[in-house]
Amino acid sequence: MLVLGIESSCDETSVAIVKDGKEVLCNVINSQIDIHKLFGGVVPEIASRHHVYQISMVFEEAFKQANVKPEDIDLVAVTKGPGLIGSLLVGVNAAKTFALTYNKPLIGVHHLAGHIYANAIEHDMKFPAVALLVSGGNTELIYMQDHFRFEVIGQTLDDAVGEAYDKVARVIGLSYPGGPIVDKLAHEGNDTYHLPRVYLDDNSYNFSFSGLKSAVINLVHNANQRGEEINRENLCCSFQASVCEVLVNKTLKLAKEKNVKQVIVAGGVSANRGLKELFTAQKGNLEVCIPSIKYCTDNAAMIAVAGYYQYQTNHKLDDLSLNAYASLELEEMYEI
Ligand code: KG4
């Protein structure tokens, strides 16, 4: 079964073709990072315009790389939300146009389900599972009894972890997106600033990162006022140590409580080296799956794979009235 995946929820225009939910024939990603870098973050209007410029070329390139004809596609899977509405609409309309032109079945996919199912490319998913979803817009701990049975057990009460990374990066003068640079500097420093581990020992599975972010901002401002130098490597290391300790600790605690067969780490921040290292050190016998970096950040292969399993699980398709949604709850979309 050949699935055409389309992803345009934020600042990546991506088209992929995946065979049988596993074999990625192509995964073309046109990133707008260099454009948004000038503004220190994603500008929604610019993002949607850029998707419009790029989408046809990305489609053409995908079919060329996969050496597949449009007639060969069996299913069209597209991100329908959540995300930037103008950006999402470009992908959804491209998917509907393709489905109508070539008379192909169409399926709308939740962006976060895409991140979770990115893991199915390189690992076999096993249930029950716990998924830690960490991206620029989300931080959630999700229990999965089976395919597409999502139960959100905990989430951030304020900033998403990727957002906190990007804000901390900006305060210490690093460019956008700051997450990967903070991660790199963290490996060149030591945890000397001893930042708080927020909610580490509470009884919930919720997270909070805005207090930690404020602690970093205050530290930098106070040092500036006193004319003192901040050691960026040590500050990045201290910030990362605090974030990773809370994320890993809560995830493994929930995994043990639910007696799961697998832990899935998903979303852009799953590319973080510190997070991988801490999971590896603390997981014991638990299987912890983290996608390769190319499948961690936004890409259409993960949407094609999620679409494949979504179809296999319930055979429900969308018609041409499919719409895009800026907000979309994972649990509600896949309610059984
Ligand atoms: O999942 P994603 O590509 O986009 C969405 O938010 O949907 O995640 C992007 C986020 C950004 O905040 C970026 O800074 C962060 O993932 N990120 C990282 C790393 N690579 C990307 N954060 C920490 N360490 C990394 N290595």
Cα distance spanning the termini? 25 Å
Strand content: 15-25%
Tell me the CATH architecture of the largest domain: 2-Layer Sandwich
Give the tally of structural domains: 2
Q: CATH superfamily of the largest domain, please? A: ATPase, nucleotide binding domain
The arrangement of helices and strands along the chain is EEEHHEHEHHEEEHHHHEHEHHH
Strands ordered across the widest β-sheet? 3-2-1-4-5
The number of distinct β-strands equals 10
Q: What is the C-level CATH assignment of the largest domain?
A: Alpha Beta
The main β sheet shows up as:
5 strands, mixed
Name a few traits of the molecule.
336 residues, alpha/beta, Nucleotidyltransferase, domain 5, 2 domains, 5-stranded mixed β-sheet, 10 strands, binds 5'-O-[(R)-(carboxyoxy)(hydroxy)phosphoryl]adenosine
Structural topology:
Blueprint: E1 2-7, E2 12-19, E3 23-31, H1 33-37, H2 44-66, E4 75-81, H3 85-102, E5 106-110, H4 111-117, H5 119-122, E6 129-134, E7 139-144, E8 150-155, H6 161-171, H7 179-186, H8 210-225, H9 232-258, E9 262-266, H10 273-282, E10 288-289, H11 293-296, H12 300-314, H13 330-333
Parallel strand pairs: 1-4, 4-5, 6-9, 9-10
Antiparallel strand pairs: 1-2, 2-3, 6-7, 7-8
The structure holds 5'-O-[(R)-(carboxyoxy)(hydroxy)phosphoryl]adenosine.
